[in-house]
Amino acid sequence: MFTVEPAKFVKKLNNLSVEKGKPLILECTYSGTPPIAVLWKKNGFEVAHSEKCSITTTETSAILEVPSSKIEDQGQYTCHIENDSGRDLCQADISVLEPPYFVTRLEPAQVTVGDSAVSGSPPISVAWFQDGNEIVSGDKYEVSFSDNMCGLKLNALDSSDAGPYTCAAANAAGSDECSRAKVPQAKCFLDLLLFLPWQFSDIHFCHGQGHKSAEI
C-alpha cells in the first residue's frame, strides 16, 4: 500500500546577518512525497528567480541566493512547501550590515572646526582621538553622544591641543575615520551626525561651531 507523506521541513531557516556586498545564502531541507511545490517570500511578497536572486529547488532542498547583498535585501524571508498531503513553512529574519563610512569629512577651515556625517548599520560606536590618543570626558574635554549626534567640546585649551583630531566610527561590519589638523586658539565645538539610512528620508548635517583656528 502506497503511503503519501506530508511535506515537512527537516532543516529550517535560521536568522542571519551578512555584510553588505557579501553573498546571502538561505537553505532549507524537507521531506515528503513528491512532487513538492516550493514558494519563497520576503516580507510577505513572493520572491522569483532573477539576475539578482537565484532559486534552486530539488526534491529535498531549496536554496535562495543573492550573490551581492544590499541593504534592501534585509527583511523576513519565508519558505513555503506543499504537496498533496500537507504543507509547512519556516522563516528567518535577515540583516544586512553596512560598515560605517563618513558621508562628509572634516575639511580645513579658518572659522569652523568642522562638520561631518557618518552612515552605517547600528549599533555604531564613535570615539574621538587627539594626536592618536583617545579623548575621554573630563574637565578639559567633553565627549557627548545623544539623538544620533556625537560631539567634542574643548575647554581651557593650550599648545598641547594642537591636533590632529580624528573621529572614528565602527560597527560589526567595519570601521572608518576622518581627521583634521588644526591648532585651536579658543573654545570650540565639533559635531558629527550619525545618519541611519532606514530611519530618515535624507541626510541631515550638523555644523561645527567655534572661534578662529590656525592651520598646522
What does this structure look like?
This protein has 216 residues and is mainly β. The chain folds into two domains: 8-97, Immunoglobulins (Immunoglobulin-like, Sandwich); 101-215, Immunoglobulins (Immunoglobulin-like, Sandwich). It contains no helices and 21 strands. The strands form five sheets. Strands 10, 11, 14, 15, 19 and 20 form a six-stranded mixed sheet that branches. A five-stranded mixed sheet has the order 2-9-8-4-5, with no helix packed on it. The termini are far apart.
Total number of helical segments? 0
Total domains? 2
What's the CATH first level of the largest domain? Mainly Beta
* Topology, number of strands: 21
CATH-defined architecture of the largest domain: Sandwich
State the share of residues found in helices, binned by percent. under 10%
Q: Helix and strand string, N-terminal first?
A: EEEEEEEEEEEEEEEEEEEEE
Give the name of the CATH superfamily of the largest domain. Immunoglobulins
Short description:
Helices cover 0% and strands 53% of the residues. It has strands at residues 8-11, 16-19, 24-31, 37-42, 45-47, 54-57, 61-66, 75-83, 86-97, 101-104, 115-119, 125-130, 133-134, 141-146, 149-154, 165-171, 174-180, 182-184, 188-195, 209-210, 213-215.
